[in-house]
Amino acid sequence: MAMVINTNMGAINAQRILEGTSREQTTSMERLTSGLRINKAADDAAGLAVSTGMTTQIRGTDQAVRNANDSIGMVQTLDGATGEVVNMLQRMRELSVQSMNGTYNLDNRKQMDSEFSQLQSEIQRVADTTKFNGMNIMNASSFGSAALTASFAATSAGAFSTAAHGSASFKAHVGWETGSTNRIGIAMLNFSTLSAIASAISLTKGASAVITTYASGVALASTAITAIDGSLSVIKNMQANWGAIQNRLDSTVSNLSNINENITSSRSRIQDADFAKESANLARTQVLQQAGMSMLSQSNQNSQNVLSLLR
């Protein structure tokens, strides 16, 4: 090899290799610092595109899980209030049966009717004041015509399906994408339409006047029982539907959580740094850098050997 001083190929070669080693070392330090294998698009352009799409799905499913759990909370709130309404209706029915007994006089029936009417008022108050996040869930204030009227026909299986798919009905959005397949409709009931709380239902007051005979009292109590039984029948249909919806939403949460876990695992394999690999690579590049610096110094020193020829 010719001995020259203008072009130091050894130094150039050492400098080129050192530059590559420094880039590798910087990349390893960046990955160890951030915990990510992909810190910029240049690290893995295709991988970044895939992981970005996965992040979209992961964040979407996270919110979908929260949506489903919030909807379960709403249905549980509705179901709990409905349970109290059922208790009051059962008590009203007891009073009606009691009023039908011939051992009670008109004053006794008025006393029974006093409790009866108070329970009617309380059911209406519950319907007017039970809210979830500021929305009325037991009358038509928030969902309008989407809330079913309290009749047996209106609370059949077919009616539930129609109400759940209505444009104004309550829907739980339980998917990370748009579309009707990602929504679960929940049929609501307007408790204000319960026949048992209608003003005409009473144990002492008929259509035109206060009762005066035992027979008229029995007739009023019979009418009240019929209305209460109809209301209980409607409510039990609604409760069965809400219970089924809660179980469905529980299954939805489990499925979303499973999807989220697996997508997160897949993203991790693409995006996250392997600390064992990067630590080993950092140690390797540090040794190479030290060796490269030594060789660069040695290459520069070789040029000095030319001076020995000029002495």
Structural overview:
With 311 residues, this protein is mainly alpha-helical. The protein contains six helices and six strands; from the N terminus they run αααβββαβββαα. It has helices at residues 9-34, 45-99, 106-129, 157-164, 214-271, 275-302; strands spanning 131-132, 135-136, 147-148, 170-173, 183-186, 188-189. The strands form three sheets. The protein has a two-stranded antiparallel ribbon. A two-stranded parallel ribbon has the order 3-6. Strands 4-5 form a two-stranded antiparallel sheet. The longest helix has 58 residues, at 214-271. The model has no long low-confidence stretch (mean pLDDT 87).
**What is the beta-strand fraction?**
5-15%
C-alpha Rg (nearest Å): 39 Å
- The rough form would be described as rod-shaped
Q: Tell me the span between the first and last alpha carbons.
A: 21 Å
Mean pLDDT: 87
The residue ranges in which pLDDT falls below 50 over 5 or more consecutive positions are none
What structural class is derived from the secondary structure elements?
Answer: mainly alpha
- The largest sheet has its strands arranged as 1-2
Count of separate DSSP helical elements: 6
Quaternary status: single chain
Biggest pleated-sheet summary: 2 strands, antiparallel
Strand and helix order: HHHEEEHEEEHH
Number of β-strand runs: 6
Helical fraction equals 55-70%
